[in-house]
Write a structure and sequence with these properties.
This protein is of the alpha/beta class. The protein has 2 domains: about 230 residues, Alanine racemase (TIM Barrel, Alpha-Beta Barrel); about 110 residues, Lyase, Ornithine Decarboxylase, Chain A, domain 1, CATH 2.40.37. Helix content is about 25%, strand content about 25%. The two termini are about 20 Å apart. The structure holds pyridoxal-5'-phosphate. The site of pyridoxal-5'-phosphate (PLP) has 15 residues, from strand 9 and helix 9. Pyridoxal-5'-phosphate binds next to strand 9 and helix 9. Its cofactor is pyridoxal 5'-phosphate.
Length: about 375
């Protein structure tokens, strides 16, 4: 088998989706599955659909296009504010987008009219994390102008916390969103269908609150894919953490001194590495580097330790492990490592699990590479 490769267990993704969908359904909240860390993998999208998501979201139109071919009936949302330069593709590829800018909304409206289609809009509200969002005092006015634009319909409000500044989506923030929903409804004269409270960072709140207010949707990526919540990166009990494994190959194994020798300056990536320890280290070089994965997000097997990483070489202390040149070493990954491995052209993507019967192009081939897809 080629290396490096990223093994995906699709059944783990279905399990995680179903568990979260069931827990949240008891609280009146549906799930929009976000597949962006998997390059919009159609198999991952189908695994989420099998798990019961009400729709799928992605930050990239290219990914939505791939998903659309596989799941033509699933509602698709573009979760990053559209670029004004791409509005024609947005209304073609996405049923809905999250928005904050009047000029983009104007352009989306014209594109929808041109394309003889209609496009759903969720307005994003700034609640303190300082990434995307309209200031809360401007939301009612802006919502009302969206309803006057041909080709668009305002379906809801949303917010996104914890991504830029780590601001926690707590009861106060969610109550603020709910009360804005009521003010917008009073102004526009109809009920908002979508109130999207946030991402995986909202799960602590959503699974413990006794009052979800008007929140009826969460956009979940990391929790479904990795089984973790992003506020403290703790595993969520009930979920599987083994959906993804990165496998890479040892190309050198030698016992070397712990300390380098010679006069020292910067290393390849500009840092002045501190090397600790004395004596010698059983050191393996793995054919894996920053072009393949974020090395800071790699978790090697117990008893092994990552020592350094450059573009193409990962140096690890293998301890007493019985590994040799040509052997595979497997790693768990955090979100950042997963994202880079999925988007690296050097990492082969191998997806396993219940064979999806509704993917026509790949149904006979449960493994495929992103280059071939
Ligand atoms: C990525 C993203 C999500 C999903 O976030 P997770 O932390 O992976 O659950 C939700 N909403 C928006 C706007 C995003 O960009």
């Amino acid at each position: 088998m080629t290396a490096p490769r990223l093994e995906t267990d699709l059944d783990a993704i279905t399990h995680n989706t179903r568990w979260l969908v069931n827990q949240l359904a008891q609280r009146g909240i549906g799930v929009t599955g976000v597949a962006k860390a998997t390059l919009g993998s159609p198999h991952v999208a189908l695994a989420m659909i099998r798990g019961g998501v009400r729709g799928l979201g992605d930050s990239r139109l290219e990914n939505l296009e791939r998903i659309r071919l596989t799941a033509p009936r699933t509602p698709l949302t573009l979760v990053r504010s559209p670029m004004r330069s791409q509005v024609d593709s947005v209304v073609r590829e996405a049923d809905c987008s999250l928005n904050t800018e009047p000029t983009v909304l104007d352009a989306l409206s014209s594109a929808a009219v041109r394309g003889d289609t209609s496009h759903a809009v969720v307005l994003m509200v700034e609640l303190g994390d300082l990434r995307e969002g309209v200031a809360s005092q401007d939301v009612v006015e802006m919502a009302s102008t969206v309803t006057t634009r041909p080709g668009l319909h305002l379906v809801g409000l949303g917010t996104n916390l914890a991504c830029r500044s780590g601001v926690i989506p707590d009861q106060a923030k969610m109550d603020e969103l709910s009360s804005l929903v009521e003010r917008v409804e009073a102004r526009v004269g109809y009920d908002l269908r979508v109130v999207s409270g946030g991402n995986s960072a909202n799960l602590d709140w959503a699974l413990s609150t006794t009052n979800t207010g008007r929140i009826n949707d969460l956009r979940l990526g990391e929790s479904i894919l990795l089984g973790t919540e992003p506020l403290h990166r703790r595993p969520i009990r009930g979920l599987r953490y083994d959906a993804f494994t990165l496998v890479a190959e040892v190309i050198e194994l030698k016992t070397k001194p712990a300390q380098p020798w010679g006069k020292r300056a910067q290393s390849a990536f500009g840092d002045q590495p501190t090397t600790s320890g004395t004596g010698s280290v059983r050191q393996a070089i793995i054919a894996l580097g920053r072009q393949d994965v974020d090395p800071d997000g790699l978790q090697p097997p117990n008893g092994m330790r990552v020592l350094s990483a450059s573009s193409d070489h990962l140096v690890i202390d293998v301890g007493d492990h019985d590994v040799g040149v040509g052997d595979d070493v497997t790693f768990r990954m955090n979100y950042s490592a997963l994202l880079r491995a999925m988007t690296s052209p050097f990492v082969r993507n191998c997806e396993h699990g219940t064979t999806p019967h509704d993917i026509s192009s790949t149904s006979s081939n449960p493994e495929f590479t992103k280059r071939a897809a």
